[in-house]
Amino acid sequence: MADSVTYSIAKHLICVEGDKECSVLRDMPGFPVFVVNNVEPEWKIVFGCNIPKPSEWTILYHYSFEIGALSSTLAKVGDTYYFEMEPYGENSVPLLMRYQMGSPILEATVCVDPMMLRFALWTAVGMLSCSSNMVLIHSSCVVHQGKAVLCLGESGTGKSTHTRLWLKYIPDTFLLNDDSPVLAFENGEAVVYGSPWSGKTHHYHQLRFPLAAAMRLSQAPYNKIHRLNIIEAFSSIHPSCPPALAQDEKFQDMMVNMLSDVLSVTPVFHLECLPDEAAAWTSHDAIFGPIK
After folding, report:
1. Three-class SS state of 248
2. What are φ and ψ of residue 32, in 5° steps?
């Protein structure tokens, strides 16, 4: 029997099977925090499978990584999805994953490269969880007074800088995740979970908090914030969802429905800001009100 380890991620129990992969995961930052024992998993990600690559498939999304020298492709044949990662260079070993829409099992070939394995699991969990009213969202998330705040924006717009300003100047604040927290809608409430994917900051917390607000950041020579209407809010938060899944009609529909539920109960703001203390207080006061 292959080695396995089970994780609790956003309350879902996910078993990863594979001797080599589990050995790598036990030493990989982030994942040990989410390990659970003696539980029956809901989903399985099984490595070491023999997966023939289809002779023809419909490519949904292709991306080349500058770091790590590899490319990734999401494709489909009917209701079966394939995710391929190809490292550049001689003697490189590609990864191929296969997922049947609605199945609790995702299959994959052998993968022992830590960077590839981490990203493969991020993609796998993204596909498995999309039908469960949750999505891994590209953002930096702080928790203040027991409520989460998502800072959204493209890479380089200052998400991590702004959350660091909250940590430095706003009392009763900590960093939940700095790259891919899990956004979910549960029992009429928008909530955020920590995840094993937190960028370079290594803030891994198996915790859940109600979502107070989300805000999209842009750099400016001043500090100004305003609340977005529902259409602007959707346009602001949707780009932070996994871009590959957004290219598929079925995954897209599930994400849109979940975001619509989240936005029905959650304010979204646009913050134009400088990287200074005043910017942190500007966003804090708009979301929580001034401290009296």
Report:
1. coil
2. -55, -30
On whether the CB atoms of residues 76 and 54 are closer than 8 A, the answer is no
201 three-state secondary structure: coil
The helix or strand, by DSSP H or E, that contains position 267, with its residue range, turns out to be: none
Residue 175: left if φ>0, alpha if ψ -120 to 50, beta else—which one? beta
pTM over cut 0.70: yes
Dist CA 267 CA 232 (whole Å): 11
Q: How far apart are CA 24 and CA 50, in angstroms?
A: 20
Per-residue model confidence as pLDDT tens digits over 88-100 = 776 678 999 999 9
Tell me: pLDDT of 126 over 90: yes
CA 13, 118, 163 angle in degrees (round to 5)? 90
Tell me: the pLDDT tens digits for 46-87? Answer: 999 999 999 999 999 999 876 667 899 999 999 999 999 998
Distance CA 182, CA 197 (A): 10
Strands 208-219 and 147-152: parallel
Among the listed residues 56, 49, 43, the one whose alpha carbon sits nearest the alpha carbon of residue 102: 43
CB 3 within 8 A of CB 20: no
- Residue 48 near residue 19, CB atoms below 8 Å: yes
Report the distance separating Cα 115 and Cα 66, nearest Å: 13
Alpha-carbon gap, residue 194 to 178, rounded angstroms:
9
User: pLDDT tens for residues 204-214?
Assistant: 999 999 999 99
